[in-house]
């Protein structure tokens, strides 16, 4: 309660006023306490509620689920391990079987290799024997051809004797015209030696090698060389000044005669002469065979070897 003081009164309060002020203060605090008590009682009487939609974590269920999952995994891993053990055991059995098969296969290979080596040895022996027999057969064929040539020459000589032609038609070396010697015609000079080949194939074989024998056709002072590189075979005009061994016309192959007819046209066949030029190796063989002999048949084989026949 506020009291009004009139002017002129003393500033010092009286005892009654002091007591009145204390009473007012106590009343004020009492009112405040009553208000606080009412508020506390109201707050205490209010019910405490929780939110029903808030999530709750059930840890026991989660742990049980994890344990169940782990047990299932353990069972699955156990089954997998059992299957792997069975597969490993099966693989071990198969490995042992493969090892046995491999050992048997190695034994078979060893046996086959021994048989192969034996067959190779037999083939080498057979091949060597075949080569030797083939060489012997070649010598026999050359001998047969030489005998045939001898028979032909004997028949030719018999025919010449019937016609009372003295001497034999021989093949002689004729050198080119030089200051030292003049060319000798095979029609003028006759000797006791004749030159020929074991067969027509032997002549063509030596011609194809190109370094043993060359075949020429001569008409007076003109020469043609027989070429086997072209098809058909033909005579080609050449200039020649070397040594020629003239051939008996009866020993000239038909293919050579046909090629000469296509190369030139000569009224008289007697004007055409056929001869060969020989390599130094064949010439040396002929010289060695003629040394110390007065006559005979000189036969050139397909391999370049020169043989002598009486």
Automatic annotation (TrEMBL):
Q: Does the keyword Coiled coil apply?
A: yes
Keywords in alphabetical order: Coiled coil, Membrane, Transmembrane, Transmembrane helix
Q: Where along the sequence do coiled-coil regions lie?
A: 137-164
Q: Where are the transmembrane segments?
A: 25-43
Protein name, please? Uncharacterized protein
